[in-house]
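Quick question about two entries, pasted in order.
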Amino acid sequence: MRVLVAGGAGFIGSHVCEELLRRGHDVICVDSLVTGNRENIAAMIDDERFAFVCCDVTQAPAIGADLVLHLASPASPVHYQQFPIETMLANSTGTHRLLEIARLNGARFVFASTSEVYGDPLEHPQRETYWGNVNPTGPRACYDESKRFGEALTVEFRRTFGVNASIVRIFNTYGPRMNIDDGRVVPAFVAAALAGDDLPVFGDGRQTRSFCYVSDLVGALLLVALDESSDGDVFNIGNPHEVTMIELASTIARLAGAEARVAHMPSAPGDPARRRPDIAKMRERYGWQPSVALEDGLERTISYVRGVGGQQATDNRQQMAGGRQTANSKQQRVGGQQTTDNRQQRGEDGQQTANSKRQRVGGQQTTDNRGDGQQTANSKQQKDHAEPRTPTNEAVA
């Protein structure tokens, strides 16, 4: 099967690409690298069954595919508040573009939504039938509301054009390849514990989350994605084991061999009090439930941060500090090098890049250009220096 994975260089997307390759599928990864990272897909680049297209999801080329997975969106509060317009366009215009590709190919489509569509829930745990309690103009609205719109657009394409489509609502997910400095609670606590710093807890720390290890999440997502008979269905994917932020801080400090010191910070605006998935539908349909216990997953994550996470954090800061450039022009720049659809990539001085390789993707020739730059999802040039955002005790997908 030929699978297009939008957002395939991101935290979850790269694990999805890896698992699809392991199962023998051909994978086309589309990512703008606004929040994705080339290092996440570095081990796959030389695989003949893997192709990387560096472009914004709103301008994804007309690629031939049997299955389209839409995971392309900033997902942490720090990132979607830094890139609010890009976030909204990825989940609206980007969703429309990928649905069109699925329609033209007669392909199956899966929209990766989020538990954020439930907002600050009045129902606990949250079932797929719950409509949510969301603030449409709050600090999380760019993410919450654009995901809700993406769900509605997916449903309408199915109704209008007969696109075989499903929606998965991803709850808090963690594990290797998370951006260390994106403000989500697990990497924030782990980094602080390893550095000997106080663990930043927002509010009184009694707010709860349920954390699913990334391999469990990927397994569940692909159960749905590869099942055409789930057409029209919506599934929660997450781990129903619920913990408070104080409990999580204590556990991470203990596993990291650090003193469990916390620093209480003012509550983050719009931070939900409780979040826990009802996964009865996944369990009944597929017999699926998470298999990685929280402490086991945290140990693996701590090991990752100790090994490569520090360098990744440095790389991410350099990447985010670099000028964000337009992704909506026909000729696009990536790390100082220009890319043009169906053309050979060239540097600004007209010289062919030394470390590029040509890839055939549905008749379109792309180049794996290993620059460090990234593209934005907005049609207007973004400011080079965004205001820093305060991290929150959140770990959205």
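Here is the second entry:
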Amino acid sequence: PLDLNAYSGILAPLNINNAFFGESTVSTKTLKLLFIACALGALAAPALGEEARAKPARATKVALHNSTAPNLRSGIALIYDETTQRPLYAKGADTVAPIASITKLLTAMVILDAHLPMDEKITLTREDEDRYKLSRSRMRRGMTLTRADLLKLALLASENRAAAALARTFPGGTGAVVALMNDKARMLGMIDSHFVDPTGLHSDNVSTAQDLVKLVLAAQGYEAIHQATTSTSHSVDMGNNRQMNFRNTNPLVRNASWEISLSKTGYISEAGRCLVMKVRINQRPVVIVLLDSWGKRTRVGDANRVKRWVENIPAPTEVLVRTDA
């Protein structure tokens, strides 16, 4: 007969031994083996359950109740539900990558935190011109604008010279701004982000989609950033009854079907085309982060795909979220 003594350590909690079976009723080795297997399974189940809870399943595509993941072209993407504080979709969300002019959101926060006079006049100089990427600009050396106008143009039109002038005229200069940007990022918990310039022209300005959600949620608390990034255009007075009009680099702010409370685009060759937005879709507040998009319209196309997808997923309490590995 099968001796259960070898299993005494495992079966003791269940008070099981050879006598348990009763020699006159059950004596087959097969049945005993089956019983042992069941007992072992019962003891192991709680431990396995704890491990499963500690390490949720991960997937390359998000699984949602009665929904499939959106087919996005961006290399990195994160769709974050502000209400549940959970991602609805994640693709490479922890990948560190250049973020181009998304940087200007953080630059603007540092400028606004300093409470400098926004009506102060600032004249563009040679120092504000891009000698790293040689990017073009409609803003010319010698133009004089208020700090408020420069902030709007840096955010709305992503004007690099406007951002550079804001940093140059900051107390302590550009170096002080960059230092405060990194301090601000750390304060916001952006642990995988680093900044070396206020414009985003340097590819060493890096972050992750996860970190950028934190940036967007913090930036939405600044009314000046909300107003600038959601305006369709902004005109500045050039003197002699001349106006220069600048359009928002995100065409979606001109689309009435979108409810956008914050927006910023970015592009350098190393980063691809980037877009972050805080939006409301079907009364659901959502942060959209799209990085490393290629093709002039890819990020906008992806944003529209996200909108259609979110419109058709269940209410927040019904969503089962799984994130990419």
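Reply: The radius of gyration is 28 Å. The first strand starts at residue 76 and ends at 81. Hope that helps.
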